[in-house]
Design brief:
27 strands; binds dioxothiomolybdenum(VI) ion; 23% strand; 18 helices
């Protein structure tokens, strides 16, 4: 069956500039805030000379730790794990280079920036503890966080002696895989425009979870949740960076309240690297023990990381391969003088899959076995630790279909065997698995007299295609064309389940489509029920008093008549008719995940060591594909995101200062078109009806998972060099 597909309904608004992102909002009387950040990595502010800045043209006020704008409430519970532990401008302590030290508010953005440059800060500096390379040698146990699975050791069986199990295995590999810090680098920076009226806040702020953002803002600002309105219909990329509330939104809101006028705060590209979150560096030791026939007997997956946010062992090993002996552990390097870590696209999964899928390739080499055959020998039908069956898994077909599309059978197992002029050509593959799920969610469906219907939910579209998915799903549920469905999202006042529940984040965990679409079906059914009732009871209805009225294709049918819903609502002069519906809870009897098999071809110049991506094929099993175009966009973007980690990305921290020396998009390298190639994406089509009636599973982060390993494995096949530290740059290939 052909998968449904549709152009993005927001495409025209985006390419014409009609789509208004947070910082595109300009309000009457608005002032501009510009953040100032520290130039030491550890120590204290001794004094701040604000005289020249205060005297500069247009300056309204300058906030520092001495006159912090009011944050009466505590930070939300998950701050300190996923976001900053301190209020903005909390005190004179400096914990990392690039920490916020002041907010200058002026009549224009130019005046705010100019004045900011006149501020002189005197520091008492201490040597920063900013080197992860040093810190990882003396890691500590992670904090124990009730209710959070991250950071907790996992063993199978409970008393496993993993070293003994590894020692007893016939073949072993054990290596350490290092991943540097990475930054989300979304196109739209964190920005907020805040305005208060009669004690109520309206804030335009790019977020993945409008309702969660409102809860966090209300908590910190010390106001009722109902007094905070987050508006965020368009988000220019997020990747986890906009899942939690960061200083720019808090400062805009607090300064606007203090000044009694709207305030806009936009983060500079350099500031994004430090005042908002990043993916922490990690170092993983991965050991695999196996029989000579390829059956894995033992897996040790030990990680050291700056933060428990990134837990590659927990996120990876329990869902990939069968093994009787398993030991997963996370250690952390606490109190480092580094910016705060947060979730970033496939948190834990990206780093974990690089280590595990590289190690599997190393094991295949050691065994002299095809990497796909090795994976099939250890195929999991249920989760490794609990043994929970997977709802719907066709990874085996991904391997087979991918191998055929890519021409895997033409691969030589001998490294360096294939050349093309000055280029060594290598092929590599990897597995990608991403947990999938959904949360009960509320959607409102409303019929309107003009013949359209709204489908509303406080979810977010960070470029993912959610606007379009909501229109398509609404069209399917109401049996009308998608252009008659008007989605509403990106607004904290729209329906969402669990207000007051901090677990409601909106578009995270690649779960927006799987979460929202089943709720649309439920709400549509409720709304149709209301509409039928209306048709038979409302004054002016041609079907007044009729029996057995039914809804079909946008019309009410009964008593030998058919009335379109728009016509009905016009005749009854009732405005609109609609209802909310909430999706049922997930069936906990299954484990849910999306799968892909990645295949990568690289070329490495034999003289310069320059690695180039030349081909990439991925075959994806993500349940029902609700929009083939946006699904493909997501996988393509995800694969490139993972390949960026393989090829380029690294936040470089200067040892002596703790400064990120490449905190800009000239020096922090990201792939451009010349660095990539057509990504061949093929979707299997197995709707996961155990997950939900729409059968859709997660896609957004899946492409990212495993992509770096496929690249690294191809590099090995091309060169015989096993690079275990990302990114794989030419200096490492020349060494
Ligand atoms: Mo994703 S890192 O859950 O936004």
């Amino acid at each position: 069956m052909a998968q449904p597909t549709m152009n993005r309904i927001d495409a025209r608004a985006k390419v014409t500039g009609a789509a208004k992102y947070a910082s595109d909002h300009n309000l009457p009387g608005m002032a501009y805030g510009h953040m100032v950040t520290s130039t030491i990595g550890n120590g204290q502010i001794v004094s701040m000379d604000l005289g020249a800045a205060r005297a500069a043209g247009g300056v309204i006020d300058i906030y520092t730790h001495d006159n912090q704008p009011s944050f009466p409430g505590a930070l939300p519970g998950l701050a300190g794990i996923f976001a900053e532990t301190r209020h903005p401008l909390a005190d004179r302590e400096i914990h990392y280079y690039g920490q916020l030290v002041a907010l200058v508010v002026a009549d224009t953005i130019e005046q705010a920036r100019d004045a900011a440059a006149l501020i002189k800060v005197t520091y008492a500096a201490r040597p920063p503890k900013s080197s992860f390379e040093d810190a990882k040698r003396s890691p500590a146990d992670p904090p124990s966080l009730p209710g959070l699975p991250l950071g907790q050791p996992i063993k199978k069986p409970q008393d496993v002696d993993i070293e003994a199990a590894l020692a007893a295995s016939q073949v072993r590999v054990e290596q350490t895989y290092d991943v540097p810090p990475r930054h989300h680098s979304m196109m739209e920076p964190h920005a907020a425009v805040a305005a208060w009226q009669s004690g109520k806040l309206t804030i335009y702020s790019g977020t993945q979870g409008p309702a969660a953002h409102a809860m966090e803002l209300a908590a910190v600002l010390g106001v009722e949740l109902s007094d905070v309105h987050v508006v965020s219909p368009y988000v220019g990329g997020a990747f986890g960076g906009k899942a939690f509330t960061w200083a720019p939104a808090l400062l805009a809101a607090a300064a606007a309240r203090a000044l009694g006028r709207p305030v806009k705060v936009v983060t500079s590209r350099e500031q994004l690297f430090t005042v908002t979150g990043h993916r922490a560096a990690s170092s993983q030791t991965l050991a695999l023990g196996a029989y000579r026939d390829g059956r894995v007997t033992a897996i040790k997956h030990h990680t050291t990381c700056q933060s428990i946010v990134e837990d590659p062992g927990y996120r990876t090993t329990p869902k990939y391969y069968a093994a009787p002996n398993v030991d997963i552990k996370l250690m952390v390097t606490p109190d480092m003088n580094l910016p705060t870590a947060t979730i970033m696209r496939a948190p834990g999964d990206e780093a974990g899959s690089f280590a595990l899928e590289s190690a599997m390739d190393e094991l295949a080499v050691r065994l002299g076995m095809d990497p796909i055959e090795l994976r099939m020998k250890n195929y999991l039908e249920s989760t490794l630790i609990e043994g929970t069956p997977y709802s719907s898994k066709h990874l085996d077909e991904c391997y087979r279909a991918g191998a055929a599309r890519f021409g895997w059978s033409r691969r030589s197992a001998q490294p360096g065997a294939v050349t093309d002029g000055d280029w060594l050509v290598g092929l590599g593959m990897s597995t990608a698995i991403l947990d999938s799920g959904r949360a009960p969610t509320t959607v409102r469906v409303t019929f309107r007299p003009n013949g359209t219907a709204t489908v509303a939910c406080a979810t977010s579209d960070a470029g993912t295609g959610m606007w379009t998915i909501m229109a398509m799903t609404g069209a399917r549920a109401l049996e009308v064309s998608a252009d008659r469905i008007k989605p509403a999202l990106g607004d904290s006042w729209l329906p969402v389940v669990g207000n007051g529940n901090p677990d409601v984040y909106g578009a995270v965990g690649s779960a927006a489509t799987s979460t929202v679409t089943p709720a649309i079906l439920v709400a549509a059914k409720e709304a149709i029920g209301k509409l039928v009732e209306h048709a038979t009871t409302a004054e002016g209805s041609p079907l007044l008093g009729a029996r057995d009225v039914r809804y079909e294709g946008g019309s009410l049918i009964g008593a030998g008549k058919a009335v379109a819903f728009g016509e009905l609502l016009t005749l009854t002069r009732s405005g609109e008719v609609g209802a909310q519906g909430t999706s049922a809870a997930l069936d906990e009897g299954y484990a849910y995940a999306s799968y892909a098999a990645h295949f990568c071809e690289v070329r490495v110049n034999r003289w310069t060591g320059e690695p180039r991506l030349s081909r990439f094929t991925t075959v994806v099993d993500a349940g029902a594909i609700l929009n083939a175009q946006t699904a493909r966009n997501q996988i393509t973007g995800g694969v490139l995101f993972g390949l960026a980690a393989a090829m380029f990305e690294e936040g470089k921290v200067e040892g002596a200062t703790g400064r990120i020396s490449n905190a800009n998009l000239a020096d922090y390298l990201l792939p451009i078109n010349a660095d990539t190639t057509e990504i061949d994406v093929h979707f299997l089509d197995y709707p996961d009806t155990r997950l939900s009636p729409t059968g859709a599973r997660g896609i957004g982060e899946l492409g990212t998972v495993g992509a770096a390993a496929a690249f690294a494995n191809a590099i090995y096949n091309a060169t015989g060099k096993r690079i275990r530290t990302l990114p794989i740059t030419l200096d490492k290939l020349l060494a």
